[in-house]
Write the structure tokens for this entry.
Amino acid sequence: MDEQKPKGNAAEAEVEEETPVTRGPVQEIVVMIVVGLIAGFFSGLFGIGGGSIIVPALVWLGMTQRHAAATSLAAIIPLSISGVISYAMSGHVDWIAALLMVVGTIIGSQIGSWLLSRLSEVFLRWFFVAFLAFVVVSQLVLTPSRNSSIHLTVVKGILLVLLGVLIGMLSALLGIGGGAVTVPALSLLFGASDLIARGTSLLAMFPSAITGTFANWKRGLVHLKNGLIIGIAAACGTPLGAWVAAFVSAKVGSYLLAAYLFIILLRSAWTALKITPGIAPLPSRK
């Protein structure tokens, strides 16, 4: 894959280029389609954007963390559209709550995109690891209800906007849709059922994915063709995941999401360790 090299010092440049590109274009396309289908299925099942699958896959294919995050966010656009349609057809989307979060995500995605172009590769990778660890713990301690809904008040409305700001920042920084934060937050703080939380999460991430992708594209961080390949494939897998979600209990769904994210966490921590100065086997500088 062709990459645009971000500005930085020599040490950071070494980190950015640590993965040589040895795979052919056909193999890359096949990998991206498979990754998209898997990400789409889990997106529909858990109400997440799929970035926790897409970002590590793109890094494995040779992208830096920042380019992978930006490209993953572009892939989330068609994925979220497909997911919203799937959940809306069964009435599991809270449109007003999603709209309030969207107000915040538009602001947050711009802040996150600005930070993405300035933070180091090492910091981005460890931030991604810390984020995954937080979500795994939250899924293990939270058991959402299957039958509750969101009852809006003025205070909850303000909190939904603030939640949107956080989600928008995480989306742009990590290349995720923010669903891994949104789904537990909507259930724990706002009383949404697990299915409503997932459907509303997919709707709320759509505008931030668009605005964040546009901001990243202006900064030269998005590989748009690769994002579209993954996103279209993911859109095909999302309805199946949403269909399975309705047949899995809320408690089992939380445990499955925690197990899935824990595997991604281990892989991400290992790749972060390999590029961390003082831990990674980098050439000594005297």
Summary: The first helix runs from residue 10 to 16.
